[in-house]
Amino acid sequence: MPVITEVEGRRLALSNLEKVLYPGGFTKAEALHHHAAVAPALLPHLRDRPLSLLRYPDGVTGEHFFAKNVPPGTPVWVTTHEVPRSAEKTARQILVQDLPTLMWVANLVAELHTPQWKAASPALADRLVFDLDPGAPATVVECCRVARWLRERLAGDGLEAYAKTSGSKGLHLLVPLEPPAPSREVTSYAKALAVAAARALPRLVVYRMSRSLRPGRVFVDFSQNAAAKTTAAPYTLRARETPTVSAPVGWAEVEACTAPDQLSFEADAMPGRLERHGDLLAGLLDPGRGRPLPALREP
């Protein structure tokens, strides 16, 4: 039977709390607790961004499917917004604007993914993202080397980069933009930097998607800047063997990384990290930290 609870005046039915979602025994109740614990830091990163869900309702070893449309049975108090899917079509997606909505979404058992734009201005990206994905035997250690190079190059263009783990094998770099810029221009700029990184670090970086090029290198994926793409949100659980989190990290941690386990964080680590460091991505939310997208220059 579902457990009926109240969150900030909203009634929620939380189901199957004892269900094991990860092979090590991590349950749905623990997943809900994780979202509640990180909510003060997570909610600002979700606010006003249409939510896409990678759902795994029967656990990480069960079926996975991507869901963007508002699901049947969505409470009337959940905020939704119509967003473009193509030149001719629109769709309605969830906006996680408050804690009750976050907990309702967490009850669906899913990774949380958001675009680089907000619902009110879907053609304009207010941040830039790089997904650094290592090809074995490369690891997050190599990603950190690439991240440092990109950080310096971005700084040379007046932009400030923030880092988080992907929650899988790699790193995400995020850059606030103010004013927001057209997604196609952000993608072009990000591609130019990815090409520049491959030229500067040819034995370490690849920017083309071909998997045959990736072993031992870091794929600098710039494509998630496209308006149709999404990226795992900060603090979301990932559907891996263990309940890893896409965790914000400081540049001192990136600089010091010499082993993969140094930048791998599970749900139980998040409360302590937030207590010690606060939200390491807080600057990403401050319009005063954003800078205009620079003009393209030769890689």
Automatic annotation (TrEMBL):
Query: Can you tell which superkingdom this protein's organism belongs to?
Result: Bacteria
Query: What are the entry keywords?
Result: Ligase
Q: Does this entry carry the keyword Ligase?
A: yes
Every DNA ligase D polymerase domain range: 27-280
Gene3D superfamilies with a match to the protein in the record: DNA primase, PRIM domain (3.90.920.10)
- Does Ligase count among this protein's keywords? yes
Q: What are the recorded GO MF terms, alphabetically?
A: ligase activity
Q: Kindly give the Pfam families that the UniProt entry links to this protein.
A: LigD_Prim-Pol
Protein name per Swiss-Prot or TrEMBL: ATP-dependent DNA ligase
